[in-house]
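Subject: complex prediction, re-run

Hi both,

The earlier run crashed halfway through, so I resubmitted it with identical inputs.
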Amino acid sequence: MAKSDVKVLGSWPSPFVMRARIALNIKSVNYEYFEERLREGKSELLLKSNPVHKKIPVLIHGDKPICESLVIVQYIDETWSSGPSILPSDPYERATARFWAAYLDEKWFPSIRTIGMAQGEDARKAAIAQVEEGLVLLEEAFGKCSKGKRFFGGDQIGYLDIAFGCFLAWLRVTEKMSGIKLLSEANTPALLNWADRFCSDAAVKDVMPDTEKLAEFGKMVIAKMRGAAPPK
Amino acid sequence: MAKSDVKVLGSWPSPFVMRARIALNIKSVNYEYFEERLREGKSELLLKSNPVHKKIPVLIHGDKPICESLVIVQYIDETWSSGPSILPSDPYERATARFWAAYLDEKWFPSIRTIGMAQGEDARKAAIAQVEEGLVLLEEAFGKCSKGKRFFGGDQIGYLDIAFGCFLAWLRVTEKMSGIKLLSEANTPALLNWADRFCSDAAVKDVMPDTEKLAEFGKMVIAKMRGAAPPK
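This time it finished cleanly. Structure:
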């Protein structure tokens, strides 16, 4: 097989990197994956490719770097027709998918992070309430977007599936570490089933991190953030 | 003229509302504009149309509400072909425009806000440095995107022109209030000329707020934020 002219610079625990990889898998695009050793220092290629933010993921197509995960997913959708469309074709459905993707990044995922990082019990409870409230909104959005089909995007994984689904491993880690079921049959039955379908999809399963391994990584990050020794 | 089925819920000092209005102007779409009286309480129509964020702008097309300014601009571009394209046609150029638009909203404009709101001199100086650093990056981006033409989008105002240009009135207010030239012939000559062209464009000039009026509004907001009486 010819060497691919597509590269992804990433790090395995990053939900944002997963977005780029899933989108490439959906389009059956071969790519070289470079795992950044972030603790040992960012690679020259990363610093050169994303000089503004110096962050992963970066997609490099030929000699062109593309940064920011949702920008990357849209670029992949607009560049390769070798697989189903990722964005819906209807402008209103596209707007709806983009709206929820922005909500997830700006409001919902920061609350997930806060659950793990919160110093006090009140802050932790407030963050859990925000995450749960968001899941109820997303359960309702699933009904409207999927129209009875398997994914937000219909029969196939689409933009909002990718935007939301990439957070499922961290959601499961948060459930495990906090002892609280965030996705449940009682409150979010549609999302609970969607999450299983998403994680077992052929485009997803090989890039979705193992919950146990990610939980270990999460504990290490929290310990570091709190300036404490890692738990024994 | 038939009553328009397009509405914009907005507030005159909001740069984000301006984005929606400029995009509609570019496409020659007639719309009804509703000025929200935010201090007197948000309208029922706003609360119903944007229940998640309860924020302006909202575009209402028929009975469909679309929220978040950059989502709205893309919706307008994808829905009406009655004017030039707003997003570039090339996927890499689209990705570049989306990247800088996200940078402006997430990094650059928050620093502009900080200049006005900062409590201490150190925080204010740091914010000014961030804004200036951002302008140098954007000056460089202008060279790459415009390819010698009048706008980031080429011969016509495009997505990144709208995303950035909507902040020009607040940039001028910040210059006026801080006494510092942020756009200058020495550091950002291309942006300085671009800003004049943007503000005098037919799609922009009627929705760009007057600097004096906006500065008065800005003083009032800062006084309110600091819990002090308005300056005399």
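The first helix of chain B runs from residue 15 to 26.

- K.
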